[in-house]
Amino acid sequence: MNKELEHSFVAQLEENQNIVHKICRLYTNDSDAHNDLFQEITIQLWRAYPKFRGDSKFSTWMYRVALNTAITLYRKSKRSIKTQDFEGVSFKISSEPYDDTAEQQLKLMYSAVKDLNDIDKALVFLYLEDKNYREISDTLGITEVNARVKMNRIKEKLRTILNP
Amino acid sequence: MDELELLKKQWQSREQELPKLSFGDIYKMLLKKSSSIVKWIFYISIAEIVFWTLLALLVPESSTKFSDDIGLHNILVAINVVNYLVFGFFIFLFYRNYRKISTTDSVKELMGNILRTRKTVKYFVIYNVTTSVLLIVGINIYYYLNQDIVFRFMTEDYGIANISQERFMKMFFSIQILFGIVMIGFVLLFYRLVYGILLRRLHKNYKELEKIEF
Q1: Contact at CB, A39 and B32, closer than 8 angstroms
Q2: What's the gap in Å between the CA of A129 and the closest CA on chain B?
Q3: pLDDT tens digits along B154-163
């Protein structure tokens, strides 16, 4: 029975791995850290999986757990604790995701987003993922009004960073 | 906010550039958590042997001269050799545990490896604490049996005068006992902190694996 659970979990995660990769890319700066965070999220998702009842979509639930992990791990890594690693799983990832675009503004925008604090970043991430405010508020556990207010403040913040 | 909208468009069109992990890659991640802990155990055991070696080099010459004078030289060298051999053996075991655990790919096997690692660490700690205690107690028994020589060399080497042998020995052993207790306390604290934390984490992983398996 548990083998089945394990397999259905891994299959679903494999299908939705883009979400996790995007979060990793936003919250880390190199491929090692990316891999570490991906693994940490995988483990947290697996830990929480028995509690996932299927009353929301797998991906919706994933956004919540993965972002929570990224936010808490991000905080931890600021105190530079690093005990995770994994070998045998290697993949390449370009460190500058938008290197080839001609648009300097976009690059600046992206680095401004990366410089936001971890909570604001989560909000922007969901916004970029084309989630509406209802979904954003659900995922982050805040009210819809709060999500709107916060998002407006972040946009304001980004604007002043880009156009000082 | 035009730039953010632009970024949003870019964001969604860039999905194919993301890394792709296979089913097997992800599955392995569920098992790999323990390998890094075991790796740390291996590293720390090496750091430890380096630390003790450096500490031995820092011991003042007068102190080694004293143990030479009183006839402990050969036995201390022998103890050191044996100690390094045993230490080396444990490092080898830690390394083997680490290799094994990082090539494991079934939950059952991994659980077995975690148990084995915990056992190795336990024996390692028992060995270290026991040898520390035995060494300190043994040397002091030797001192006690050879009080005359200890007193003679102590007064000669360090120029302690104007004190009766009885009083000197009382002071000497008080300091020795105090020093011994502090030393053993330090060793216990060290192992409790360093290996205790790592072992607890391993145990947690083990419990989680148990949930997967049964």
Answers
A1: yes
A2: 7
A3: 777 666 667 7
